[in-house]
């Protein structure tokens, strides 16, 4: 009986210890599972933030690279346009210089002077032109009391009339007409590029 009671007591103690052990193991496993889930959530959140930061940085770098490339291409296009314009207008200048050595040039000068002969019909008017054009202009403007001077800059051809007393000035030089065409050309082709 004592053995039996002792055996029952030992069995009861063992059952209680086993129950407590199972309960402790279960509580430990629950606690560990909870901590693992929290760590997994924190790690997932950290990874998602790192990925989002990387995506943002990557998008920024791509947009920055694209903006730089666009700017480089824009600059190259403008430089190329400028080079082409210079070549075109150099050729136009050469053609105008060749035109000043033709028979049609004298007729051109006569046509250009017609609108201004009544306005500039007074003494004190100076006609400025290229040295080679002065004899032609003296002949064309023979009726008017003009003085003639050689232009200090290359006006290609044509003439400039000025009367400081009357505050009159007109530039009929080929260089002025060319500059006007350049401005028109630059502004119209600039709209396409800009």
Main attributes?
194 residues, alpha+beta, four-stranded mixed beta sheet, 4 strands, 70% helix, rod-shaped
Account of the protein in words:
With 194 residues, this protein is of the alpha+beta class. It is built from four helices and four strands, in the order ααβαβββα. The radius of gyration is 48 Å and the shape is rod-shaped. It is 70% helix and 9% strand. The termini are far apart. Helix 3 (134-140) links the parallel strand 1 (126-129) and strand 2. The protein has a four-stranded mixed beta sheet with strand order 2-1-3-4, with helices on one face.
Write a compact overview of the structure shown.
The chain is α+β, with helices and mostly antiparallel strands and 194 residues long. It has 4 helices and 4 strands, in the order H-H-E-H-E-E-E-H.
**What form results from the Cα inertia axes?**
rod-shaped
In order across it, which strands form the biggest sheet? Answer: 2-1-3-4
Strand content: 5-15%
How many beta strands in the DSSP annotation? 4
Radius of gyration: 48 Å
Oligomeric form of this entry? single chain
> Main beta sheet, described?
4 strands, mixed
- pLDDT under 50 segments (min length 5)? none
Secondary structural class: alpha+beta
The separation of the N and C termini measures 110 Å
- The helical percent reads over 70%
Summed up, the helix count is 4
Q: What is the H/E order?
A: HHEHEEEH
What are the SSEs and their pairings?
Blueprint: H1 2-99, H2 103-113, E1 126-129, H3 134-140, E2 147-150, E3 159-163, E4 168-171, H4 174-193
Parallel strand pairs: 1-2
Antiparallel strand pairs: 1-3, 3-4
Helix pairs in contact: 1-4
